Amino acid sequence: MELARNYLSGQAVQSALGIDAATLTVWRKQRRLLAVWHRPINEWLYPDFQFRDNALIREMPDLLAVYETYYSHVWKNTWGIVEWFMSPHLLLDSERPVDVMARDPQQVLTVARTEFLQDPSTFW
Questions:
Q1: The organism sits in which domain of life (predicted)?
Q2: Measured between alpha carbons, how far is 103 from 116 in angstroms, rounded to an integer?
Q3: pTM attached to this predicted model
Q4: How far, in Å, are 25, 57, 71, 87, 91 from residue 76 at the CA level?
Q5: Which of 10, 38, 60, 82 is the most buried (most CB within 10 A)?
Q6: For residue 102, what is the DSSP state?
Q7: Considering only CA atoms, which of 75, 70, 86 is closest in space to residue 37?
Q8: How far apart are CA 106 and CA 48, in angstroms?
Q9: CA-to-CA distance for 33 and 56, rounded, in angstroms?
Q10: Domain spans of the chain?
Q11: What is the pLDDT of residues 20-41, one digit of tens each?
């Protein structure tokens, strides 16, 4: 509940991005932007950290594609993706990806690719 308080409704995202409901649905299903199902209100909500200046952060679709490659099962519960963004990360000097997204989304994408796409045996 606490996290979702600042998340955007579908209507707010449509207004900010200048798109209609059908386009938003297509983008959500294509995983171009992150949406979480918020059961208390029975509505998709869109985490605010993926937007800046009334636009989707350019790296967001690529970040979600990295998730698709490694964690395709999390799309049944996208709150797991939100958890990754909200948790301190060693490769970001223990900063949370959500905080780094605000200033350097490319760095977050690089970390996600390192974590999810590289052979884990190369880290030893």
A1: Bacteria
A2: 22
A3: 0.86
A4: 16, 23, 10, 20, 27
A5: 60
A6: T
A7: 75
A8: 17
A9: 8
A10: 3-118
A11: 999 999 999 999 999 999 988 8
